[in-house]
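Give me structure tokens for this 96-residue protein.
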Amino acid sequence: MTEPAKTLAPIICGINDVITIKDAVAETRLSEKTIRRYFKKFRLGRQTYSNAPLRISKPGLMMVVHGDFEALEQLRAGNRHHPSVLRYFDALGIPA
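Here you go.
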């Protein structure tokens, strides 16, 4: 996997494209530990305060799972209509 930059801009998540850690585990069949590591390493969503639930960008998580870091950077830049980003939104049935 490519190492992300030290300071990453947050991914702006819409109401329809966030999932909980429990849902992320079920969707990806990865361990909760792995999901938490990805969340932290790639800044895949938000946690409003300490001990608050994680709200994970489902498209962002899928991009990491598939190793598509170019699409992840487009998403992070707010380019939700970029073809490489739209692939994920379309596949997940989420409006961009």
